[in-house]
Amino acid sequence: MAVSIKSEREIGLMRDAGKILAEVHARLGEFVRPGISTWEVDQFGERLIRSYHCVPNFLHYNGYPASICVSVNDEVVHGIPHRNHMLREGDIVSLDAGLIYKGYHSDAARTHAVGKISADAQRLINVTRQSFFEGIRMARAGNHLNDICKTIDRYLTFNGYGIVRDLVGHGIGKKLHEDPEIPNFAMRRRGVRLRPGMTLAVEPMVNMGGWQVEWLEDDWTVVTADGSLSAHYENTILITNGEPEILTLLQ
Ligand code: MF3
Ligand code: CO
What are the tens digits of pLDDT across the range 210-237? Predict the structure, then answer.
C-alpha cells in the first residue's frame, strides 16, 4: 500500500479544490429548508460546482447518478436525490459533495437540520462533527493512522453511538479514493505512519442506534439496519509538520 505524498504544487491545488468545496458546502447549508426536494439540492450543488469551473467528481462515479449524495434521516450515505423526495421539518439531511479542480479532488460532508429538529438529533449531529475534530488532533506527522481511528472510536463509543464499519475514509488527491483506508473504529494494527504532504478524507458515519447498515434496492443508498438516525461529517485534510490543515473548511 503506497500513500502518495503531495508536492508543494499539488498541495496548492488541493488547497484551492478544498476552498471551493468549503464555499459550495456553505451555500448548500443555506439552501436546505423544509419543502425543497433532494433533487433540487443536487441541481443547486451541481450548478454551483460548475460555476467554479470544477467538475462534480461523484457524478457517474461507479454509475452514481448525481453530483451530491443526499441522505435523509436513517439514510447513512450515498442517498440518491429524487424529484419527489421532499425535505420536511424535523428531518436531518447529510450532504456529501466533492469536486475536481485542475486534476485534484476534494471531498467533504455535513449533516444539516431541516427546520426545527429534536434535541437527540441535534446531539447526534454535534457529536459526529466533534468526533472528526477529536480524531484529527492525532493527525500529525510521526503518528500512525490508527491513532486517528481509535480516537474517533473512543469518543463515539463513549457517547453511546453506533459506528458504521462497512464504509471508511480514504486518501485523496489525483483520485477520489486513494490509499489508505481510514476506518472510524480502532484497527488491530498501527496502520501507516503519517507524513507531511499526505491528504486524507476523514469521515465518521454515525448511527444513533446500532452500527449495522443495509443497502437499498437501488444498490447505492445505505440505511441503518434498525431505522435509527444517522449523521456524517467529513473534511479533506493535509498532514503537515504541525497541526493538520483542514482544506475543506473556510478559514
Ligand atoms: N464522499 C463519498 C466517498 O468518500 C462519496 C463517493 S460515492 C459516490 O466515498 F459514488 F457518490 F461518488
Ligand atoms: Co469521502
Answer: 999 999 999 999 999 999 999 999 999 9
Which residue bears the cell 473548511? 249
Residue of the CA atom closest to atom 8 of ligand 1: 58
Give yes or no for a contact between 151 and 244, defined as CB atoms under 8 angstroms apart: no
Cα gap 46→135, rounded to integer Å: 30
**How many angstroms separate the alpha carbon of residue 233 from the centre of ligand 2?**
10
For 107-134, the pLDDT digits (tens) are: 999 999 999 999 999 999 999 999 999 9
Question: Rounded to an integer, what distance in angstroms lies between the CA atom of residue 54 and that of residue 158?
Answer: 40
> 25: Cβ below 6 Å to ligand 1?
no
64 Cα nearest atom in ligand 1: 10
